[in-house]
């Protein structure tokens, strides 16, 4: 997440604040080499001048009723109280 999002301009001495959530939907087909990071060569990249990053997770994302409209969701089915019905019977309900 250090380089997500990518900052292309000169940001030295500035702060970027982000309150939300981030997701990588797929692996990059272009940027496939190792990330050299920031700082002087040979351990970093002298041409990359990112801001000071102030990342926070929006706490509303922890509650399903506060998510934005059309947010993808996942439903999980947990098997419990299963039983085998007697032969030649239908519509058998376990005691709920």
In which range does the helix fraction lie? under 10%
Shape descriptor = elongated
pLDDT average, as an integer? 76
The main β sheet shows up as: 2 strands, parallel
Structure summary, number of beta strands: 2
Structural class: mainly beta
Low-confidence segments, ≥5 residues, pLDDT <50? none
| Approximate strand percentage | 5-15%
Distance linking N and C termini: 46 Å
Major sheet: arrangement of strands: 1-2
The Rg value, from CA coordinates, equals 25 Å
Output the number of helix runs.
0
Instruction: Write the H/E string, N to C.
Output: EE
Descriptive tags:
mainly beta, elongated
Characterise this structure.
This protein has about 100 residues and is mainly β. The chain has a domain at about 15-65. The protein contains no helices and 2 strands. The two termini are about 45 Å apart.
Give a brief rundown of this model.
The chain is built from no helices and two strands. The protein has 96 residues and is mainly beta. The radius of gyration is 25 Å and the shape is elongated.
SSE arrangement:
Blueprint: E1 15-20, E2 52-57
Parallel strand pairs: 1-2
């Amino acid at each position: 997440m250090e380089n997500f999002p990518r900052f292309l301009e000169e940001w030295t001495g500035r702060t970027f604040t982000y309150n939300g959530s981030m997701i990588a939907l797929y692996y990059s087909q272009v940027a496939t080499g190792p990330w050299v990071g920031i700082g002087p060569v040979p351990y970093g990249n002298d041409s990359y001048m990112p801001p000071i990053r102030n990342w926070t997770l929006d706490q509303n994302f922890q509650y399903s009723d506060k998510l934005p409209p059309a947010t993808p969701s996942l439903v999980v089915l947990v098997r419990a109280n299963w039983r085998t019905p007697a032969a030649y019977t239908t519509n058998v309900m376990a005691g709920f």
